[in-house]
Design a protein that fits this description.
The chain has 91 residues and is mainly β. The protein contains one helix and five strands.
């Protein structure tokens, strides 16, 4: 079993907690997670979707773009499930 990244004081990092929470479900809806390379993100976001920008190395997740994003997470609530698209840097 693979262990999630740990932050200071042995706690799970904010980034790992956020991603695991989306994968296990959000607002009682099961999640479907798809990953893509960062170069496939075209900046077009479906109406009603929420975009989160993350830097895994700095353990930062926010709704505004960062200077350097390691991940862009698009969360779209559909009628009966949650669609999560994760665009990640290839490093």
């Amino acid at each position: 079993m693979m262990m999630p990244p740990m932050g200071p004081k042995g706690k799970m990092s904010k980034f790992a907690s956020f991603i695991m929470g989306l994968g296990y479900g959000y607002k009682g809806k099961p999640g479907m997670v798809k990953t893509y390379p960062m170069k496939e993100f075209k900046g077009v976001v479906p109406e009603g979707a929420t975009v989160y920008y993350a830097n895994k190395k700095l353990d930062v997740i926010q709704k505004e773009p960062l200077i350097y994003n390691t991940h862009i997470i698009v969360v779209q609530e559909l009628k009966d499930q949650l669609l999560v698209e994760i665009y990640k840097d290839e490093e």
